[in-house]
Amino acid sequence: MNSTDKHQEGMQTRKSVLGEVHVAKAEAAKTSFDEGFQRFITESAWGTVWSSEHLTKRERSMITIALLAGLGHEEELILHFKATQQTGASLEDIREVLMHVAIYAGVPAANTAFRIAKQVFNL
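C-alpha cells predicted for 4-carboxymuconolactone decarboxylase:
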C-alpha cells in the first residue's frame, strides 16, 4: 500500500473513531508547520495501527485509554473517552481499564483519569 492509500485509510479510520466533526476541525487547524506531523500520525497511528484487523476498535480504545491515563496525557484522554461512543467501549470497560491503570501505572494516574471520565460522561 502506498503512502496515499495509507493516508486515505488512516483518514477513514480516524473519522470512524474520533468522528467527522473532530477530524474536520483538526484538518482545518493544520498549518504548514504541523502538516508533516499530521500526515505522519494519520498514516502511522490511524492508517497502520488503528486500521489493523488483529484487535477490535473497542480493544484498541481500551488500550489507548490505559496508556494515555498512565502517561498523564489528559487532553488526549478526554478525546479518547469521547471516542468510546464510536468504538463501543462501555463505562464498565473504562472503569476496569482504569483499575488496571491504578495497579500498573499508579493510583494518582488512575485517580486523575477517573476524575476526567466523570466530567466527560457527566457521572
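The chain has two domains: 1-54, 55-123.
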